[in-house]
Amino acid sequence: MRNEQSDLELIRGVQSGDQGAFEQIVRRYQNRLFNFIFRYIGESQSAEDITQEVFLKVWQAAPSYEPRAEVSTWIFKIAYHLSLNELRRRKRYRIFHDAFCREEVHICVSEQTISSESESEIMQILDRLPENQRAALLMRVNEGFSYREISQILNTSVSAVESLIFRARTCLRQLRSR
Questions:
Q1: 122: exposed, middle or buried (Cβ count in 10 Å: 0-12, 13-18, 19+)
Q2: pLDDT above 90 covers what percent of the chain?
């Protein structure tokens, strides 16, 4: 019995036109991508469309893929940018006043806390976060990406990611207490 292929081996297969390798990438990432995109943009049909578009971009861009980052980081970066473009197209994203998110209180939002609330309440609260904070928090909490990986996906510094996640948690705490 053969061991499961690594993401890099699969992408190398896709680079050579192996449709089976591409199908394995799709199976491996489809649910994770959909969940991230859905939570990020808040709309199921658009999340499905964007998930499909991500895989189209992966297929098209695979020949030029260089392993400077993990394959998962590369795929989620594509998903993030397509989702961001969708939010901009629909003008759905909102920006909070800087003062709203500057409170210097250390707040920790755990997955257990999030799972205890209803999905619709979570979506409403997440939708009120600035888009970059929402993306960083979802990548950290739901996907388990490291701060370094998030910084690569968002094309920012690790310290900026730390700040985004801190501010997102602070904002969530304030929104939940209302």
A1: middle
A2: 44
Amino acid found at 89:
R
Residue with tokens 């409403």: 124
As a whole number of angstroms, the distance between CA 55 and CA 33 comes to 10
What phi and psi, each to the nearest 5 degrees, are found at residue 65?
Answer: -65, 130
Question: Considering just the CA atoms, what is the radius of gyration of the chain in Å?
Answer: 17
> Looking at residue 138, what is its pLDDT?
87
Q: Give the global pTM.
A: 0.66
CB 42 within 8 A of CB 84: no
Tens of pLDDT, residues 119-149: 667 677 778 888 889 899 888 888 888 999 9
For every residue of 13-25, DSSP letters joined together read: HHHTT-HHHHHHH
Quickly list H helices, the chain: 7-15, 19-41, 44-61, 71-90, 111-115, 119-127, 131-141, 147-154, 158-176
In the numeric block, which tokens belong to residue 51?
């998930």
Q: Which domains, from first to last, does the chain contain? A: 1-93 (1.10.1740.10), 95-178 (1.10.10.10)
* Distance separating the N- and C-terminal Cα atoms of the chain: 55
